[in-house]
Amino acid sequence: MNPLASETVAAETAAATDTTTTTGSAAPAAPALSLRESFALLAERLDGRLSLPGEPGYDADRLAWNLAVDQRPAAVVVAASVADVARTVRAARELGLAVAPQATGHNAGPLVEGHGLADAILLRTHELRAVEIRPTQRLARVEPGVLWGDVVAAAAPHGLAALAGSSHDVGVVGYTLGGGVSFLGRAHGLAANHVTAVELVTADGEFRRVDAQHDPELFWAVRGGGGDFGVVTALEFGLFEIDQVVAGALFFPIERTEEVLQAWAEWTRSVPDTVTSVGRVLRFPPMPELPPFLSGQSFVLVEAVVQESPERADALLAPLRALGPAMDSVHPQSPAELLQLHMDPPGPTPGHGDGMMLADLPAEAVRAFVAAVGPDADTALLSAEIRHLGGAFAPSAALEVAADRGLPLPGAVGGLEAEYLVYGVGIAVPETIEAVVASLGRLLSRIEPWRASVEYLNFVERQTTGSRFFGDDGRLARLRAIKQVVDPTGVIRSNHPVGR
Q1: CB distance 87 to 46 below 8 Å
Q2: Strand arrangement of the beta sheet that strand 231-238 belongs to
Q3: 21-53, pLDDT tens digit by residue?
Q4: What is the pLDDT of residues 85-133, one digit of tens each?
Q5: Which helix H or strand E contains 187, and what residues bound it?
Q6: Which carries the bigger pLDDT value, residue 191 or residue 9?
Q7: Per-residue b/e over 63-75, b at no fewer than 16 CB within 10 Å?
Q8: CB under 8 Å to 351, separation ≥6 — which residues?
Q9: Backbone angles phi, psi at 46, to 5 degrees
Q10: What is the structure's pLDDT at 257?
Q11: pLDDT in tens, 137-179
């Protein structure tokens, strides 16, 4: 925690709550302020900026990464300091508004369903981008606006790697609070399991630093329970001494989708935990930014990351290479290169996507997937993928990893109770949105028979009940009890609230 920020917040809190004169008598009640006047007072106290509907800058400040999501909050605060976070939370509480923290807005859709944030302050933290790497401890400390590209760039010179997301511009905090599925994850588990401390502002406007010894219940909740418990101002998490992996993609013509995905699914049943892979159908749009051999072309491909020697990786990948890929980009590389492997859009994009976890992937499930998105399918999805889970992603393995590495016990979601994770997405513009929604619905309905008992928070982009994320084993009740303690009036609002 920044001590100067803490002192500033403490002083402001004392000033705001001091209602007595020097003689001890009660001060006269201040006249009630209008909402606009209250916002003006908040704006004067901020190091950052506040924008209101109709003002210059409001439309730019309210944009989520997913440009298809129309966020229309009562106000937007762009924080320029950690103290701004506490000022905003206190102001929202006093005004009877909610606070919706957001760094990037990749999964903002559920946040605006039904109300569009009209009763909330959207608290943007994307300008808080400090990264500190502690090489001897193999730890990173990041502010709430940090992207995975920032962490990877800072850690790589020290020979360290993070359990990063699949794209450079995914926000570290939101990704980690929801669990965090990395290309290195089958060997190391969810990113949330490697968090050692969290700094946050809770609904009372107070700073807290929580870890396994300090407020362990709240520490448990934020690791996998989502962003419903406070506004995170810093995360500390472990890094890994990994200087090289063998990774890349094997591209095949889309006409071979069923053959390739059936072979891949069978292959995943025997590979070691050092291999994380994705089977994927990808239809590249015709874009001049893409090389000609990709622009407008469609493929079935396997993306793989192998944490083994090049010789051992070649042996493991041999069954897939025996299928005769049209292109093979697999090669030894730095973990930093993994941010390009999944070929995600390089910047904000209007998209409509959703996901589902699968308990298993038998041949029938592969056929159902191919029927929905393969070469003969009527689909508007640009990408449909199946990620292999298992390994250290399993809840039982998460406990073993924690014991072996001296980590805190896993949090609210220590592992994923599924073997595979499906996600589909298309471009959501007026001309295509109906077709994309219908295509995504067909995909999810076809694979429904193999659906797992719970969902993965970060890949669900619709309003969903808490039981779908946390099951019926007592975790949801525990999360709701913690929410009631730290935020009884619902000041903090997340895209997947535990009370739903």
Answers
A1: yes
A2: 131-134, 139-142, 231-238, 195-201, 207-210
A3: 333 445 556 567 899 999 999 999 999 999 999
A4: 999 999 999 999 999 999 999 999 999 988 879 999 999 999 999 999 9
A5: helix 185-188
A6: 191
A7: bbbbbbbebbbbb
A8: 66, 67, 68, 345, 425, 426, 427, 428
A9: -75, 145
A10: 98
A11: 999 999 999 999 999 999 999 999 999 999 999 999 999 999 9
Q: Are strands 120-124 and 75-78 parallel, antiparallel or unpaired?
A: parallel
Pairing, β 120-124 against β 98-102: parallel
Mean pLDDT of 430-437: 96
Long-range contacts of 345-349 (CB under 8 A, 24+ apart): 345/167, 346/169, 347/169, 348/63, 348/64, 348/65, 348/66, 348/67, 349/65, 349/66, 349/67, 349/427
Q: What residue type is 60 in one-letter code? A: A
- The burial class, CB within 10 Å (0-12 / 13-18 / 19+), for 448 is exposed
- Cite the beta strand spans of 180-274 per DSSP E: 195-201, 207-210, 231-238, 245-253
The span from the CA of 233 to the CA of 492, in Å, is: 14
What is d(CA 297, CA 293) in angstroms, rounded to the nearest whole number? Answer: 7
Q: Where are the beta strands (DSSP E) in 191-244?
A: 195-201, 207-210, 231-238
DSSP 3-state assignment of 209? strand
Q: Is 237 helix (H, G, I), strand (E, B) or coil?
A: strand
User: Which amino acid, 174?
Assistant: G
Residue 5: pLDDT over 50: no
Residues 299-327 have a mean pLDDT of: 98
- Of 11-15, 105-109, 388-392, 399-403, the least confident: 11-15
Instruction: Classify each residue of 43-62 as buried b or exposed e, where b means 16 or more C-beta atoms within 10 Å of its C-beta.
Output: bebbebbbbbeeeeebeebb
Question: φ, ψ for residue 383 (rounded to 5)?
Answer: -140, 135
| Chain length of the chain | 500
Residue 283's pLDDT is what?
96
Exposed, middle or buried by CB within 10 Å (0-12, 13-18, 19+), for 162? buried
Burial class (CB in 10 A: 0-12, 13-18, 19+), 434: exposed
Distance CA 391, CA 420 (A): 11
Bridge partners of residue 451, in order along the sequence:
358
pLDDT of residue 289: 80
Q: Residue 205, Cα to own-chain centre: how many angstroms?
A: 24
Alpha-carbon gap, residue 140 to 146, rounded angstroms: 11
The reported pTM is 0.92
Contacts 24+ apart (CB under 8 A), 378-381: 378/439, 379/439, 379/442, 379/443, 380/426, 380/432, 380/435, 380/436, 380/438, 380/439, 381/281, 381/283, 381/424, 381/425, 381/426, 381/436, 381/439, 381/440, 381/443
